[in-house]
Amino acid sequence: LKLNSLSKPVLPYDVVLLDEAQDCNPAIADIVASQRCARILVGDKHQAIYGFLGAQDALREASSGTGACERASAFRRQLTRSFRFGCNVADVANFVLGAFKGEPRPVLGCGRHDGALLPVAGAG
Predict the structure, then answer these.
(1) 54-93, pLDDT tens digit by residue?
(2) CA 87/CA 72 separation, integer angstroms
């Protein structure tokens, strides 16, 4: 992969989609950055877990005008609805993300099941 990225390949596509862009390795980020086609980066900065392996946040670089979107305009869109969980889990996630990460945008839990919150042992 590293050797391929150093050759600056031109991929024969109209669009390149990079999923999990918050945990991108430098070789893949470089391949995406070198493309002249439209690029779509998808990810969640709060789910970045591979920094200890040298992963970089291509989303942050795109927002700052470097990395995978350095030569193009970047349009940022937030997905604030999740169909994986309901409102109870969303309430907990919003508390944690707001209190510990300073996230101002709440997520809406739109799943079919509200989710059950379990009591904490010894609390109250």
Answers:
(1) 999 988 776 666 555 555 566 778 888 999 999 999 999 9
(2) 37
Q: How confident is the model at residue 124 (pLDDT cuts 50, 70, 90)?
A: low
Strand segments, DSSP code E, in the chain are: 15-18, 38-41, 81-82, 108-109
Q: What is the value of pTM for the model shown?
A: 0.74
Q: Would you say 36 and 14 are in contact if contact means Cβ atoms under 8 Å apart?
A: no
Q: What is the DSSP letter of 106?
A: P
The amino acid occupying position 106 is P
Q: Is 117 helix (H, G, I), strand (E, B) or coil?
A: coil
Handedness of CA 110, 115, 121, 122 (dihedral sign): positive
